[in-house]
Structures are given as C-alpha cells and as structure tokens.
Amino acid sequence: MYKIELIIEKMKTTDLLKEYCDKEKFIGFCKKCKNYNKVWSCPPVKFNSDEYLKRYDNAYIIGTKVIYDEKTIKNTNTEEKISKVTEETFHDVKKLLATIFLQLEKEYENTKFISSGVCDICNECSRSLNNPCRYPDKMRYSFDSFGMDLSRISFKLLNTEIKWSKGQLPEYYTLISAFMTNNEIDNLKEKIENHIIKYN
Ligand code: SF4
Fold this sequence. Notes:
Blueprint: E1 2-12, H1 13-20, H2 23-30, H3 49-54, E2 58-68, H4 70-75, H5 79-107, E3 111-114, H6 150-157, E4 172-181, H7 188-199
Antiparallel strand pairs: 1-2, 2-4, 3-4
Helix pairs in contact: 5-7
C-alpha cells in the first residue's frame, strides 16, 4: 500500500528558532483549526515554547515520506476513500513513529521528540473536559505548537515539497517531526529504519 522513506537534517536549535519560527503567523493559522485549545498537544501551550526547545542544543528534523503505490492511488477514487486512507495512514504512521521515538528517548539522555501533528492517542482529548492529559508520558507536543513554518522546513531544509490530496491521493504525504537532544546521534536514520523493520 505504501512505503516509508526518511529524510533527516540536523541543525542547532537556536538556528531552527531563528530561521523557521514565526509564532504570530503560524499559531495564528492554528487558531482556525478544530483542535486549537481542544487537545493538549496543540496550541496554545501553557509554557514558553522557545525555552522548551532551547533546553536541547540539537534538533534532528525528521521528514517521513509516506509513498503510496500506484494501485492504492488508482483504487482510492472517491472523496470518502481518500479521507479514510489518509486518516488511517496518518494514525498508523504516527503511532509507529511515536513507538520508535519513545524507545530512542530512553536510549539517549536529555532527549525529547516533537510530534508531527495532533496527538490522537485518545478518542477524545481530556483537554476538552478541562482535565489533565491522560498519558503525559506518551503525549508529545506537535511541531505546530512551536509556531514553525513546516512548509518551509520541508522545502528548504528537507528538499521536499509538501503534497496534499486534490481529488485523489497524492503520490506521497510528508510528516515532519523532530528529535530534540543534547547528544550527537550517529546514524539516526539507520537506527529509525531498523526500528521500522522491527515494528512494522
Ligand atoms: S494523550 Fe489523550 S489526553 Fe493526552 S493529549 Fe493525547 S489525546 Fe489528549
């Protein structure tokens, strides 16, 4: 149905903030989303998001390309099917990545991953009930919460154009997440790929 390809670029956290963060603009876009103030992983966050990232010296930006095969694109031929396949793909790939990234967090001290998009661990987030997050040990904040220009990160840093469905499944989707750490991690791509083979 699809294959996964990873593109990883390392940069200093200070450069990430300087070059790709524009909170006023991008948190502004988030305000129009149904998840704004409804899911704990999403904006508005209740802490200084720059300071949160600056606790880590290095940002490994991870683009996960989910590339569909021709048959899947051809057979996903109605709006309903496109929504279903897209939703299931995002849910499954994010779950797989979260499992791997939480495992890697344990292997490297002072490390935290930033998720691609909204947390969907629970059917309904406890934030809408004004209760604390049910799984703070598993929940990770979305990259959007930090006011990042994800299209520019994808295009300029990862050399990948972000694609969306337009009457048919795109050739690929790109999920952008980050591994924030005070370590230098050799071969992060190979490490994640090995985990993908193990868990998939
Ligand atoms: S783990 Fe559950 S309660 Fe916590 S942010 Fe995710 S959906 Fe909300």
